[in-house]
Design a protein that fits this description.
This protein is of the alpha+beta class and 383 residues long. It is 66% helix and 10% strand. It contains 14 helices and 7 strands. The strands form 2 sheets. A 5-stranded mixed β-sheet has the order 2-3-1-6-7, with helices on both faces. Strand 2 (297-300) and strand 3 form a beta hairpin. Helix 6 (119-141) packs antiparallel against helix 7. The radius of gyration is 31 Å and the shape is elongated. The model has no long low-confidence stretch (mean pLDDT 86).
């Protein structure tokens, strides 16, 4: 009895770890229910845990029944994990492929249980099958994991976990086939399998939870730093882009700032309504996005005022960019319902000098902007 308990308790460690991780994913989903992929990951860890518990507790009962039950749960776990991870990256795994994979594994297990019993064949079918599925999932998400460290951790953990199934399974070809359940439970393969599954399962779970937490933080930062109407940076977002999170004066890199103000915007609102004004703001934001470079930062810092930070750009280059924007706005017909509205914008441009902070260059760009307005609007003046 003591020997049996001594065998069962260590064998239950990995399933219990997976169960705790399933609870962690359920809790994470309960906090942010928009991330439905967390439910699939939770179900995957729960199925894996139940598979392990079934395999341990029924080890001395009907071995074929135990193999089919645990094999079905393990296979479901692998499919749910792959589908959940793919869902995180807006990728899909067709239900027909899931059913086909499940059927192939289960039919193979049935054959090697009830037609031609072979423990080694069980090992080959399941481990090569799961390894292939995890590797295929890792390769599919690879192009989507190049930015976030957490996403790169998911990719590498998934890739290594899938790859380890192959050498670990090939290890069995160098060992004598297990004659009994007891000899299999005490084999090097079984112990290495349990240890590696515990480590890889924990690493993958921590990577996914870290990526989910990173997503939440990025969304909070986005809500804090983005203007909801135009989806450009707001004043705070621009400050962080120009000065960094320390907000320390005198840390500006070389670059130039463009200040832009829509001409007679109050009159547009009074004449055509605020919805028309909002539509014009959104369209001008799109024009700015299309015109500036990928490394530039555009923001809406006031009602109808925009600011664009052009790092590494001198005054002449920034003025040319402002002129392109001015011409694009002036030649655009803003269609709002049945109305066709013309609008223009005025620009002021300033280039960063040593020792000044973002407020200093913004003030100088604003001075140029007001000079351009006094000179007749729809023009660009640089300092």
């Amino acid at each position: 009895m003591e020997g049996e308990i001594g065998r069962i308790v260590p064998a239950l460690i990995t399933p219990c770890i997976q169960f705790v991780l399933a609870i962690a994913f359920a809790f994470a989903w309960s906090i942010d229910r928009q991330r439905k992929y967390l439910l699939l990951i939770m179900a995957a860890y729960m199925a894996f845990s139940l598979g392990g518990i079934t395999q341990v507790l029924l080890a001395y009962g009907n071995l074929s029944l135990q193999s089919m039950l645990s094999g079905g749960l393990y296979t479901a776990s692998a499919i749910l994990a792959s589908k959940g991870i793919l869902m995180r990256y807006q990728l899909s795994l067709k239900y027909s492929l899931c059913l086909a994979f499940f059927a192939i594994i289960m039919v193979s297990l049935w054959y090697f249980n009830y037609v031609k019993f072979s423990i080694l064949s069980h090992i080959y079918v399941q481990n090569f099958g799961y390894g292939f599925l995890l590797l295929a999932t890792a390769l599919r998400i690879q192009p989507h994991t190049r930015i976030s460290c957490a996403d790169r951790a998911i990719f590498w953990t998934l890739l290594i976990s899938g790859a380890l199934f192959i050498p670990r399974t090939l290890l069995t070809t160098t060992l004598p086939p297990p004659a009994t359940v007891e000899s299999f439970a005490n084999s090097t393969f079984w112990h290495s399998l349990q240890f590696s599954l515990a480590i890889s399962g924990l690493a993958l779970a921590l990577s996914i939870l870290a990526a989910s937490t990173s997503d939440v933080m990025n969304e909070l930062r986005k809500d804090r730093d983005l203007d909801p109407l135009t989806q450009l940076l707001n004043r705070r977002g621009l400050m962080h882009e120009m000065n960094g999170p320390t907000m320390t004066p005198g840390v500006l890199m070389p670059g130039s700032l463009i200040a832009c103000d829509i001409d007679h915007f109050k009159k547009i609102n009074d004449t055509f309504g605020h919805s028309a004004g909002d539509s014009i703001l959104a369209t001008i934001s799109d024009i700015i996005r299309r015109t500036i470079r990928s490394g530039d930062s555009a923001s809406r810092i006031g009602g109808e005022e925009f600011a664009i930070w052009l790092p590494g750009t001198n005054l002449k280059e920034a003025s040319e960019c402002a002129e392109r924007l001015r011409n694009a706005i002036a030649t655009t017909v803003f269609s709002v319902g049945s109305m066709h509205i013309h609008a223009t914008a005025t620009f002021g441009v300033a280039s960063a000098t040593a020792g000044e902070c973002w407020l200093d260059i913004l003030k100088r760009a604003d001075i140029c902007l007001y000079k351009a307005k006094r000179a007749g609007r729809n023009r660009t003046i640089s300092s």
